[in-house]
Amino acid sequence: MGIRYAIEVFTQDCCACAGFIAYARELAASRPGSTVRVWDVTQQATRTRMRALHLAELPAIVVDGVPLPCCSPAPDGNAPT
Asked: What is the pTM of this model?
């Protein structure tokens, strides 16, 4: 069995987010057994997870707990509340 990924996509209702979700699903489809979880910023659990990952901007993709370089954590380590 190949490499599996746990992919998290943090979104809000925007056109850019749809592209990020599609990209994450393509990545997961290329690796059988990978999972995609889409987080909605309107939910408190999403904001809590974003703070834990130090994400400051949306949309963002995290693979196995590590933000992709395009989704770098906030420089000061603070995510929005």
From this structure: 0.81
User: DSSP per residue over 18-44, as a string?
Assistant: HHHHHHHHHHHHTSTT-EEEEEETTSH
Answer left, alpha or beta for residue 55, where phi above 0 means left and psi between -120 and 50 means alpha: beta
Look at 51 and 73; give whichever has higher pLDDT.
51
**Phi, psi (degrees; rounded to nearest 5) at 20:** -65, -40
Cα(16)–Cα(20) distance, rounded to whole angstroms?
A: 7
Lookup: tokens for 77: 């380590």
Domain residues for the domain of 26 are 6-71
Say if strands 35-40 and 6-11 run parallel, antiparallel, or are unpaired.
Answer: parallel
- Has residue 47 been placed in a domain? yes
